[in-house]
């Protein structure tokens, strides 16, 4: 690593960041330089639409981003943001990366506030610093006043009061403040759990939680601990820190989507934790959209957790990488930066290996619950406490579990690389943020300067024409909405036809299996009596031996599994293809309809001497990638029947009833007597057909509802962002018109001020480009 070169580059990055902040401050002081989006029509309905760069909110967001980069540069800190939904296993993944348990796991949201986890060599026991605790203490005082007159039973109707929540209520009633420092895992867990319970309690009592007080990254809690996987490695220039971010809608707080976007925009790199079993779910889509928004500025990585739930029919590693890189992330993430893993196995295996190395044995499973989880994962469900005394065997089992977790690859390719190149990641992040700022600043300033040089009449004319264009936009929105509604209707009709055909094929295959001699052969091979109904079709199988009855049940199950497997693959492929086509059709319809408006606006402004840069936002249908595979989860996974259990608790009944999400149906007429076993296959056959029909109907309803929601949300955001862009142009022209009505000396002074800001932005842009190139050269030189 070139220490002197990095030091010089960090000084240059600091100089450019300071200059950019000074330039932004100068823009804020410029008369009527920015506009307030709250005055624009429809903004209240589109609160999630990102602000324009030089609206009031946009300028504040840019200042916060540049200040954050300046803070990271001063310590050469690489911040790796970890993002994922509540059930994706984000906390477990962070624990696996760190190598010890630093974040608690609960079956509820656990990241209401972002939290930093900083690798600190030599800090064996984690310590949490929460210096900016004042807003939380102020909130506690508000809640104390509110709770003094609030009925506890009434509160229990709005909020689950478990042991943790009850303790928090007592603490608030007693007026106990939060500490600024917590040493050890349990005190840290207690602090983080209390913070998250405070969010839930505030919501129940209609008291605003002070999220805005923790918008700056330097104000959020920080955990310092040595990462086990980095212990003993050579000290590197720079600092590696993880950022645990809130999910897009954790703790029932929808505005956390905005906080998530802001935190990701300030990271040096982003690691998405995705759930292998829910890759196309709505919640995962929200996370993908959030990281897509910053994908052009920071490197993206993905851990696909719960890969241990893969069975012989699921997608393998290469298929998962192709799905995420191509279909889900539209090429924004390299397949080599996607890692299927089991975070739980990785955490448990590494925790066990660390304990064996430091203590020589594992703690007693009654003292630390994770030991029980490890033993079950590494030794199987039938482990005994005595098994833990065989240290050599336990060490071998831990190594095998670590290998099975597939965590070695991301630790080596991501964590070790991030640690070794933390300073370069920090510098690269700063250079990209600088380039983003200067690009938008130059475009905005040029447009404002042109407004002071074109003819007065041209300004008035273009303001009027933009009003006409916005009216045309509203008319076009109504027209294209009708067209898209028609496309959606046709797509759903095609899906209905497809599902009807698939249902017919499944039923036909089931009928054939039950009627075309399969059961006759099974009866003959099992020495069972076969009773036929009036239609001469198999109705009952009668066996004298319980073991043979279980074998017959296993064969029936196997036959059904084969049919359902084929149906799963056909329906998954068919629906995925149809709704991919729908997404492309909708995007094309929007572009074809709106392109003439965009072209007209550009031509009008160019004719007047303006170089306006407007472009379409991306259409983001949030659930068109319908997760048909998840509908079939556990449809046909076999379950071994324990020895001695009555044959009626068969794997077919349990497996297929889970598939149909209706555990009440079964082989009610399957009777066990002292001397023989009767399997009512006719009843089973009919109930299976009925529930296949019911399940296909549920697919139809889910498709219709989710496609409608996704198209509505996607179109609303598309038009809101385009309208906001046009409103920004119009407001800038109006500002210019107002300034032109002032005296000539004021106009001249503002023109000179703009010219100075433009020159400064150009200088910063060129120097930032050279900085980025130098950093890329160093990155390339450090590659093996």
Automatic annotation (TrEMBL):
- List the molecular function annotations (GO) for this entry: GTP binding; ribosome binding
Which keywords belong to this entry?
Coiled coil
- The record places domain Dynamin-type G at 74-412
CDD domains according to UniProt: Ras_like_GTPase (cd00882)
Q: Which residues, by range, are in coiled-coil regions?
A: 449-483
Q: Which domain of life is it from?
A: Bacteria
Q: What is this protein called?
A: Dynamin family protein
Annotated source species: Kosakonia oryzendophytica
């Amino acid at each position: 690593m070139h220490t002197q070169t990095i030091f010089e580059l960090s000084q240059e990055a600091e100089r450019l960041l300071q200059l950019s902040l000074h330039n932004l401050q100068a823009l804020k002081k410029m008369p009527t330089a920015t506009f307030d989006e709250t005055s624009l029509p429809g903004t209240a309905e589109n609160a999630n639409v990102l602000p324009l760069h030089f609206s009031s909110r946009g300028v504040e967001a840019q200042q916060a981003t540049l200040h954050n980069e300046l803070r990271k540069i001063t310590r050469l800190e690489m911040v790796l943001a970890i993002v994922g939904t509540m059930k994706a296993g984000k906390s477990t993944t962070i624990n696996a990366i760190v190598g010890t348990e630093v974040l608690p796991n609960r079956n509820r949201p656990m990241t209401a506030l972002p939290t930093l986890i900083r690798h600190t060599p030599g800090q064996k026991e984690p310590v949490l610093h929460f210096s900016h605790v004042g807003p939380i203490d102020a909130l506690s005082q508000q809640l104390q006043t509110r709770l003094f007159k609030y009925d506890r039973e009434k509160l229990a109707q709005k909020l689950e009061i478990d042991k943790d929540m009850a303790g928090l209520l007592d603490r608030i009633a007693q007026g106990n403040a939060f500490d600024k420092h917590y040493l050890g895992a349990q005190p840290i867990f207690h602090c983080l759990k209390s913070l998250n319970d405070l969010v839930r309690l505030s919501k129940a009592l209609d008291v605003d939680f002070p999220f805005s007080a923790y918008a700056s990254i330097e104000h959020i809690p920080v955990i310092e601990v040595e990462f086990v996987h980095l212990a003993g490695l050579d000290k590197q220039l720079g600092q590696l820190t993880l950022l645990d971010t809130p999910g897009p809608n954790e703790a029932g707080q929808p505005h956390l989507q905005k906080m998530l976007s802001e935190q990701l925009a300030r990271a040096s790199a982003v690691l998405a934790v995705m759930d292998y079993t829910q890759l196309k779910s709505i919640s995962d889509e929200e996370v993908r959209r959030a990281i897509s928004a910053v994908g052009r500025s920071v490197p993206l990585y993905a851990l696909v957790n719960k890969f241990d739930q893969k069975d012989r029919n699921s997608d393998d590693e290469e298929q998962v990488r192709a799905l995420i890189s191509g279909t889900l992330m539209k090429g924004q993430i390299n397949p080599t930066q996607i890692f299927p893993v089991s975070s739980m196995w990785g955490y448990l295996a590494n925790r066990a290996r660390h304990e064996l190395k430091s203590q020589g044995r594992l703690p007693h499973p009654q003292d630390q619950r994770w030991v029980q989880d490890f033993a079950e994962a590494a030794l199987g469900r039938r482990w005994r406490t005595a098994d833990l005394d065989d240290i050599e065997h336990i060490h071998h089992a831990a190594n095998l579990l670590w290998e099975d977790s597939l965590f070695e690859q991301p630790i080596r390719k991501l964590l070790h690389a991030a640690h070794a190149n933390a300073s370069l990641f920090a510098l690269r992040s700063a250079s990209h943020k600088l380039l983003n700022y200067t690009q938008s600043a130059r475009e905005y300033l040029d447009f404002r300067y042109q407004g002071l040089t074109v003819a007065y009449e041209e300004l008035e004319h273009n303001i009027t024409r933009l009003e006409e264009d916005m009216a045309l936009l509203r008319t076009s929105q109504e027209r294209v909405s009708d067209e898209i509604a028609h496309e959606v209707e046709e797509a759903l009709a095609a899906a209905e036809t497809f599902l009807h055909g698939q249902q017919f094929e499944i039923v036909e295959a089931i009928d054939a299996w039950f009627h075309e001699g399969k059961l006759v052969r099974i009866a003959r091979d099992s020495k069972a009596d076969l009773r036929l109904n009036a239609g001469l079709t198999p109705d009952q199988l009668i066996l004298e031996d319980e073991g043979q009855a279980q074998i017959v049940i296993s064969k029936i199950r196997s036959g059904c599994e084969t049919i359902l497997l084929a149906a799963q693959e056909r329906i998954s492929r068919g629906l995925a293809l149809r709704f991919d086509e729908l997404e492309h059709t909708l995007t094309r319809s929007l572009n074809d309809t709106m392109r003439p408006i965009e072209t007209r606006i550009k031509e009008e402004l160019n004719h007047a001497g303006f170089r306006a840069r407007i472009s379409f936002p991306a259409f983001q249908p949030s659930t068109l990638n319908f997760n048909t595979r998840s509908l079939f989860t556990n449809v046909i996974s076999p379950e071994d029947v324990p020895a001695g259990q009555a044959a009626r608790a068969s794997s077919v009944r349990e497996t297929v009833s889970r598939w149909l999400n209706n555990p009440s149906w079964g082989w009610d007429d399957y009777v066990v007597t002292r001397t023989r076993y009767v399997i009512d296959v006719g009843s089973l056959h009919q109930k299976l057909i009925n529930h296949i029909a019911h399940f296909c109907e549920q697919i139809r309803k889910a498709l219709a509802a989710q496609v409608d929601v996704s198209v509505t949300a996607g179109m609303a955001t598309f038009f809101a962002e385009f309208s906001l862009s046009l409103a920004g142009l119009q407001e800038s022209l109006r500002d210019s018109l107002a300034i032109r009505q002032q005296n000539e000396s004021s106009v001249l002074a503002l023109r000179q001020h703009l010219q100075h800001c433009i020159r400064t932005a150009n200088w910063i842009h060129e120097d930032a480009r050279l900085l980025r190139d130098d950093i890329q050269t160093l990155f390339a030189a450090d590659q093996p």
